[in-house]
Amino acid sequence: MMIPYPHVLLKFRLQIQVALSIALAWCCTLAPAATRIAPAPDEFESGVLTARETANLEAAARLVALVRYFDPSSQASGVKAWDLFTIQAMESVFDAVDAQDLAARLAKIFTPISPLLEVWAGGPDFAPPEPEIPEGSRSVRYWEHQGVGSLPTTFKQFVYSSQLRTARLTSDDLPFRVEDRFHIANLGGGVSCRLSLIVYRNWTGTFPLGSTPQEWTVSPENTAFSLSKRATRFADIATAWGVMEHFYPYFDVVDTDWDKALTEGLKQTSEATSDADHLMTLRRLIAQLHDGHGSVTLHRVGFAGCLPITLDWTGPDLIVVGVDPGFTEMIGVGEVVRAINDKPIAEVYTEVRLSICASTEGWAKYLAAFELTCPRTSDPVEIEFLRPDGEVHRVLMKPMPIALPMPKKGTPESGTEVSPGVVYFNLVGAESDQLRSNLETLTSARGIIFDMRGYPAGAAYEAIRHLIDRNVASAQWHVPVITRPGRAGWRWDQSAWDMPPKAPHWDKPVAFLTSSAAISYAESIMGIVEHYKLGDIVGSTTAGTNGNVNPFVLPGGAIVGWTGMKVLKHDGSTHHGVGILPTVPVVPTPAGVAAGRDEVLEKAIEVIAARLGEAKTD
Known about the structure:
Layout: H1 8-19, H2 21-25, H3 51-70, H4 74-77, H5 82-93, H6 99-110, E1 118-121, E2 139-146, E3 161-168, E4 182-188, E5 191-196, E6 199-201, H7 230-247, H8 258-270, H9 275-287, E7 295-297, E8 309-314, E9 317-323, E10 336-340, E11 343-344, H10 345-353, H11 361-373, E12 381-386, E13 392-397, E14 416-419, E15 422-426, H12 432-437, H13 439-444, E16 447-451, H14 458-467, E17 472-473, E18 476-482, E19 491-495, E20 498-499, E21 510-514, H15 521-532, E22 536-539, E23 552-553, E24 559-561, E25 566-568, E26 584-585, H16 590-594, H17 599-617
Parallel strand pairs: 15-16, 16-21, 21-22, 22-26
Antiparallel strand pairs: 1-5, 2-3, 2-6, 2-18, 4-5, 7-24, 8-9, 10-11, 10-12, 12-13, 14-15, 17-20, 18-19, 18-25, 23-24
Helix pairs in contact: 3-5, 3-7, 3-8, 5-6, 5-7, 7-8, 7-9, 8-9
């Protein structure tokens, strides 16, 4: 599957919208088009789950996902109100007293939409006899997911789809043998199930013939169910967990106990006493994916504002890189944050890290700097700073409705000659027309420094075309083709950019500045630079996450972002959690930041000068 260039920028803007939703929300309250209308608040249900209740909910969560995404019957595929169904499933099994009771309750609510489903108390080896092939069958039907395209979302998808496929009884096109059409699963709680992944059909529908119960055929538009009800919160956890259980493409490279995550998520949200508590539980659940695009936002849980400083990391130190004009007499750029509310910064980061979804520590720290600057409460924050001269002082600040102050560093304007014959161009946010307006300057330069310490736009794609003299490819994009639960038997639909060169060709020393803020599209560009050795890479490792996001909305109204596509480097090696490594590592220093220097740029100037010197001696 090839993604044509006209879709590229749309694709990447969608990626960053979700991947950075946490970071962007620090500055303002999100109000996306997908926001659902929340019901009037009422008393918040809260309580500690027993072991039996937890097992009941886990079993229901597993079964909802199996039936929703893999039961191809007319009855199951006709369900539109999956949010309502999931909530009712959680309610129906909650107080089951034992495995027999749980199996009976699951069968009662699921059989009307999954007529071939069998649920029993006991292990998978105690499955009842398999049903015979119905008389009058003319064909079979099954689900085929490319990624997963049936999730509730208002974001347009270019690459993900979910379709019911039909094949003849004797077809060779089936993804698995008819004899393997049943999936048997241990649901937990002493209960197992058998689901038919292929159903037989005639001209009127699937066997056994029937229709979807009316109450689940219509989904209320733009309505979120109340998070004050525990069943809604359980349904949120079940929905988010089920999507990732069957469709997340990186479980092979991340260290996560996803079953344990389900247990913890259900227990934590059961004890929640506010929407904010539940949001934190969801964020901690998704954080266990270790996905740089992973995020959870809930519009009605707003932000109190931002502190009058901007923070960033220089190695192990969290330092001030920007100060609001009204606070420059109290706080200086380059000061190191030692503690927040009397907690050492290492301890603060460890706590915040639990709710940040990232595949690398660099990206996690990048997001943590935003979270620490823009807290979710209006409580005053006391920060202990270390000045460059060694003085320690404390400042009490209150979050305010302000934008984060711009970092103060010596970064020039695009098109500036930063040393004799060497031109700087900032690709972060730059469109193609900005590159074209500097084309003559860049073409006549003896060396070029491109800044990729953030999220680029169309100019980055165009710049690469001027640096190549033949067609080049991007990294490998793999969309999983899924027909069975539990990530079994995946096939892959592989694609890549085919990027042609563009005149004029720039045959000169080039350096790219990188940092952990470079994610997704930025890594697509830098992956080409890395593989084809188009220039020196100066700075720090990128975020280590690429691939189209696939956001969806939970029953309670939260929006979940995650990566639905696996991206591998050109040579087939892992990109996720690895990123693009610099050829010339540079870590800025607090002293350099305090002096307003851009030490990464300074190093790149040295590198280009050395390259030009080498060229003279050749």
